[in-house]
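Recall the central idea of this unit: under ordinary conditions, the amino acid sequence of a chain determines the structure it adopts. In this exercise we apply that idea directly, starting from the sequence alone.
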Amino acid sequence: MAIESIHESYVKSRRVNILANHFAVLCPEGTSILDVGAGDGGLAAAIMARKPSLQFTGIDTLVRDDSHIPVESFDGVKIPRHDNSTDYVLFSDVLHHTEDPMILLREAVRVARRGVMIKDHLVRGLLARQTLRFMDRVGNRRFGVQLPHNYWRPEQWDNAFEELKLEREDYHTRIGLYPFWANWCFGRSLHFITRLEISGQE
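Accordingly, the structure predicted from this sequence is:
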């Protein structure tokens, strides 16, 4: 489809650059980060290019031959790491592809010493769910990515963070993923990016 080609050639590269800028600010210097659903590791590599002191490894259900960082296979449910084995766990547009985001969030809190970083979606505003489903299909369907369209409302995210004792240190809903002429439809407040610290951890 023409729209998928446009997404691949323009939107994807813009997205990686913008998210890398945001995450580079969110990631504390010199920390170790586990990228869950790392794909080809392109986002992690772009973040490290902006902040070289970071140490990234990745896991994914499908390991690619051309990964930019070390990526290990996992079953999509249990993170193959010991308790408190990395400073942060990062999820970039991963949790809404799971049947139950709480499963991976609990795993992230188990393996992280300091906290969790998330970029995901919010069901908020007119036709939000329909818009998110369309974006997901365009960006992922041709790659065979699981599409349960499990998008959460803001209060669902808040309840999850409270249950897991995750405290927001930084949070943004205006990320700038799209040019101004597309932002009114695909940007709005449908996206968020945040760094959360585990309560009681330094």
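The helical segments are 2-26, 42-50, 101-111, 128-140, 154-163, 180-187.
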